[in-house]
Amino acid sequence: MLSQIDWARPWYDAVRPAFARLDVDVSCVADALNAAAAPLALVNQRGLPLRFVPQADLPEGRAYEEFIGATGCVPTRENLHDFFNGLVWLTFPRIKQQLNALQAAQIALAGVGKSRGAARDGATIFDENSALLVVRAGLAGEQLVAALRAHGWIEALYERRAAFGADAEVWLFGHALMEKLVAPRKAITAHTRVVVAGDDYFALPHDGRRAWIDRQVAAELAAEGLSTACFTPLPVLGVPGWWEGQDHAFYADTTVFRPKRAV
């Protein structure tokens, strides 16, 4: 299963350190994740110790998110989807905790029905398919974000490509998104949340930036909540430096880099 993953790809930069801590010789995904999680003393939003358990431990008819909130147990199957979910728990535990809190609260309020509600929909999209675009505070960052929100792909990703790495970074969060990128396709698109950071952030090492993002975004979610309106689309292979042949024609492909719909 793990042999399918090309860890050299830049979209796995966020979770690669967590993977490096795993004992890949352990036959059970949950056991490998638990061994890596133990030194981190991870807990859920109620302060219960976080454990990865077999999917069979989830009672029939019980909501996945509510079960994690009530027990601290994360049902985990032997597949890439749940493997990446575990790596995200090891990488951004505060954000995962806050997302689970939002989902569990929505379930407690409205139950489990056909309609999830805006908050739970937003949390699910974040959990499954999101990327975090960290931009340096200032006019240049504001202009980059405005171009992305307007679907000005050539301006944002081609003309402003020098900003990426120096003044802007993309960190993948969604575990379903990571799974899809095992077999990369140009059309794979992330729901992207913008995070504004000061100069101090960009001076931090990788692990310091990861920890800052985890604290900052979790605090924002706790203070502001979440809805589907919080995201802007970003074709992942369009992130500068993340794919080969990113010339002007690459971004002019309107089957992938679509113009913004008229309101």
Shape: globular
What's the number of helices? 12
Order of helices and strands: HHEHEHHHEHHEHEHHEH
Strand order of the largest sheet: 4-3-5-6
Low confidence ranges: none
Q: Can you give the mean pLDDT? A: 93
Number of strands: 6
- Strand portion: 5-15%
Main sheet overview: 4 strands, mixed
Terminal CA distance:
44 Å
As a percent range, the share of helical residues equals 40-55%
Oligomeric assembly? single chain
Look at the helices and sheets and give the structural class: alpha/beta
- Rg from alpha-carbon coordinates: 18 Å
Q: What does the model show?
A:
It is a single chain. By secondary structure, the protein is an alpha/beta fold. It contains twelve helices and six strands. It has helices at residues 16-20, 29-37, 64-71, 80-91, 93-110, 118-129, 139-149, 153-159, 175-180, 199-202, 206-224, 248-251, and strands at residues 51-54, 73-76, 130-136, 168-172, 189-197, 232-235. Strands 4-3-5-6 form a four-stranded mixed sheet. The longest helix is centred in the C-terminal third of the chain and has 19 residues, at 206-224. It starts with 15 loop residues before the first helix and ends in a 12-residue tail after the last helix.
List the helices and strands and how they pair.
Blueprint: H1 16-20, H2 29-37, E1 51-54, H3 64-71, E2 73-76, H4 80-91, H5 93-110, H6 118-129, E3 130-136, H7 139-149, H8 153-159, E4 168-172, H9 175-180, E5 189-197, H10 199-202, H11 206-224, E6 232-235, H12 248-251
Parallel strand pairs: 1-2, 3-5
Antiparallel strand pairs: 3-4, 5-6
